[in-house]
Structure formats: C-alpha cells, structure tokens
Amino acid sequence: MAELPQSIEDALALLEAGGYVADRALATVLFLSLRMKRPLFLEGEAGVGKTEIAKVLAATLDRPLIRLQCYEGLDVSSAVYEWNYAAQMIEIRLDEASGKVDKKAIERNVFSEKFLIRRPVLQALSGKPGKAPVFLIDELDRTDEAFEAFLLEVLSDYQVTIPELGTIRAAEPPIVIITTNRTREIHDALKRRCLYHWVDYPSAERELEIVRRKVPAANERLSDEIVRYVQKLRDMDLFKLPGVAETIDWAGALTEMDKLALDPETVSDTIGVLLKYQDDIARISGGEGRRILDEVKAELNAA
C-alpha cells in the first residue's frame, strides 16, 4: 500500500502517477486534506474531473473506493444500512419450528450483524486501520437537506448509531471526497467540516496534456484543434458548456473516424458528442461553428 503524500510535491506526483493532470492549488488542498484528516469538498461544473480525483486517489494509494451516488430521495436504508428482512423472517420461522420460545434470544439473533446489509456509509466506516477506504460522496447537491444534515453528523464523529446494535465507529476515518455540481447551495455547517476547492475548466495547455494522456492515439494536430475549439466554445453563452469529459470523448470519437484535423462537415456530424442540448447544437451548426473553426485554423497556422 502506498504511503500518504508527505509534501505538496508528493501530492502532485501522486496525481501524476494516476494520470491526473492537476495544478498546484489542487495538490495543495489535497495534501492538507490528507494530513489534517478532513473531508475534501470539490465544487465545479459537471465534467471537469471532480469524481476522477477520488478514483485516482484510491488507485494510487491502493485503497478500496466506496462510492455513494447521491440522488433526490436518498435515505438511510439506501445510504447507510438496512436489515435483511427476508433472511430474518426465515430465521424466525426456523427458530419457532425448532421449539425456541425465548423471544429476547430470537430478537438478539435476528438483529445481529449477519443480517445487517451494509450500504456505502457503513462500508466506509468499516475499513481496517492503515487501509481506510476512499469514500466518494458524489453529487451531494442532488440530495435533500435532511440527508445533508444526517451526513453532517456522520462526518463529525465518523460513527453511525444503529438502534438494535449500538454505535459503530470507524477504526480509522476514511478519506472523504465530496463533489457537487452546484445545482443548489450546500449548508455552511457541512462545508465548515471540509477543506474546499473549486475545480475549474483547465487551461488550454492542461487540457491538451489531458487529451494526450487519455487519447494517446489522437493525431497531434487534431488534439490541438479540438482543445482550441472547445476552449472557444466555453467563452460562449451556451446552456451547457462542454466539460473535459466531453473533450476526451470528442477526441476519441474523431480518432476512431481516422480524422487528422477538424473540418466543417466533421464538426457538424459529431457535435452531439460535445454538446448535449439542441439549442446549443443549433447555434453551433450554423455560421457560428464555422467562424470558430476558422479562428482555430488561423491561430494554429500563425503559430
């Protein structure tokens, strides 16, 4: 198992080893989060690589990754634990059939750990000392405030109380990564428990390096054109700006088509890989898209 980084440079190297192209600001807050054993709260637009940070951490530190994918209506039974009711009923019937009449003994038996179904939160608190898991709480803004309040209690003491069993505490706190796409504001009380970092769209240089790593088969000229094109799209007033994930997908799609450079027809045919809303596609499919492509070509020729 890899050791936790001992410096900001080590944190940069850790992310680099996992193929994540990070800036020093991210490496700094990650290093501090690991050293101070505080959750890392990552906020930013969808597709900028927030979730990938947790995946890279788990892989490079050789720790289990436990992911809690948040959604509206998420409750304790889906996020923390529930009892295996079917198995409990069978056990009760078997006890009754065998002649057992001690109801308290039957109750203790059916509410023992062998009938407990551990959901992500409880799994994250059950890690072994020295190898606590990376606990990814993904898209927290999709849940409601009630679950957010419950999560605040869990992150305060890293423990969960189950009425039938008692309190289960983490032998070692997990490495917690929380992501949000900022579709709603998260309560300040939860943010205060965490170290905060805004994950922005990368610069053209960083994004080009990301494409080179994720799509190594892509032609160099094509990769450069793709990144410049996407960077210009992000300066426009679109309903949904393309993220890094879309840039990588577009580079991969054009590489599969054996394209060596962008042209108007190719952009028009594949723009659905990059943009996901018809109004945005209609705007780019017209003269606006050709204008951007002409600017990209001119810049590269000048360079």
From TrEMBL:
| InterPro entries linked to this entry | ATPase_dyneun-rel_AAA, CbbQ/NirQ/NorQ/GpvN, P-loop_NTPase
Q: Which CDD domains match?
A: AAA
The family database entries (SUPFAM superfamilies) matched by this protein are listed as: P-loop containing nucleoside triphosphate hydrolases
Q: Which GO terms describe its molecular function?
A: ATP binding; ATP hydrolysis activity
Pfam families (UniProt xref): AAA_5 (PF07728)
Q: Tell me the ranges covered by the ATPase dynein-related AAA domain, including all copies.
A: 39-194
Task: State what protein this is by name.
Answer: MoxR-like ATPase
Tell me which species this is from: Phyllobacterium bourgognense
